[in-house]
Amino acid sequence: MHARHIMSIPVTTVGPTTSIDDCLRIADESGFTALPVVEDEHLVGIVSEGDLLREKFHNHPRTEGTAADAMTSPVVAMTPETEVSALASAMLRSGLRAIPIVENGKIVGIVTRRDLLSLLTMDDTRILHEVQHRLDVYAGPHRWTATVTDGRVDVSGADAEESERRVVAALAETVPGVTGVRVG
């Protein structure tokens, strides 16, 4: 499984000149514990709740800091094709709460500890619900039927061409917790 399967999108970002107060408000409203700092559509840093609180309470009360003052740079970032195990290892080794996902220099998602926890709590019932929902949205209800055993998805139903079967398999593979897919 790859970062693209579990990353949160869209990503809530701030600019380097965003005030600390605005960053705190944005973090609170978005529910994210880390905000990528983006300039000209490129990732230049990241600010965590801890960074923002330190900057807010350690600065002179009359001095208004910015995201640039509090951010960590350079940033640990990974690609959409990064294996989830590599993301988890990087988070554990470095104590990171979130890792931005970047493609062609632009941020396309973010993987948080919450995303990893959600992956670990996926059981066969939740996987089946999500796979079946995606199949129904794609082809309409009852065209394809899925079953799940130990994360392995078996899809049956419509007599379809190989290209559609590949699409159905790809839809099922993108569900977190899926360990394999067979379209029969």
Automatic annotation (TrEMBL):
The cross-references to PROSITE patterns, in alphabetical order and at most eight, read: CBS
**Gene3D superfamilies noted in UniProt:** CBS-domain (3.10.580.10)
Provide the alphabetized UniProt keywords.
CBS domain
PANTHER family on file: CBS DOMAIN-CONTAINING PROTEIN CBSX3, MITOCHONDRIAL, OS02G0818000 PROTEIN
Q: Which InterPro entries match?
A: CBS_dom, CBS_dom_sf, Diverse_CBS-Domain
Keyword Calcium carried by entry: no
Pfam families xrefs: CBS
Name the record gives this protein: CBS-domain-containing membrane protein
